[in-house]
Amino acid sequence: MPGAGDRGKAPARWLGTGLLGLFLLPVSLSLEVSVGKYPTIYAVNGTEILLPCTFSSCIGFRDLQFRWIYNNKTVREIIDGIVKNEKSDPKVTFKDDERITLEGSTKEKKNNISILLRDLEFSDTGKYTCHVKNPKENNLEHNATIFLQVVDQLEEVDNTVTLIILAVVGGVIGLLVFILLLKKLIAFILKKTQEKKKECLVSSSGNDNTDNGLPGSKAEEKPPTKV
Asked: What is the rounded CA–CA span in Å between residue 125 and residue 40?
């Protein structure tokens, strides 16, 4: 039988499990921020580029704060704003550069706070961090960083080798298909030829039996002998 000490340990275990669940719950419902699949993007000097950023939260948000931070040799905040709730669009409260515009929307669960940077300069090269803070999740914060490389011109990818490889592979596959079809055609012709030979042999054998008066064949009838 369990002793008094064992009975006392059971509530303690349940309490420990409950506390662990409460600790892990915020993790499962944590705020997430994403800047897309590619950690580095390239843009030509003098053009414009969209720096993507989206966020998600399982329990929603209220008075969500966001900001973009530029980091090259110096760190500076280039834009920040606030989103009241899921039914309102982001509102910019500070902007460091007139070339920057907020392009995102948080309506219809888009949760998009991307920015557009126009008239790019080589000095715009650097890290751009999208930072989000959600008071509804006990001021939980999260961020994601994307690297922008401003270049004189985008390099053209030479696909000659790839096209040659594809052409060779396609030619080999086509040749194999042709060989298989030719093999089947030859097999079909040989089969038909053998069938015709068998028919000829059977017909020839029947004619020989008839001429020799063998059983199963019609022999020439002879007139009866006169006495």
From this structure: 11
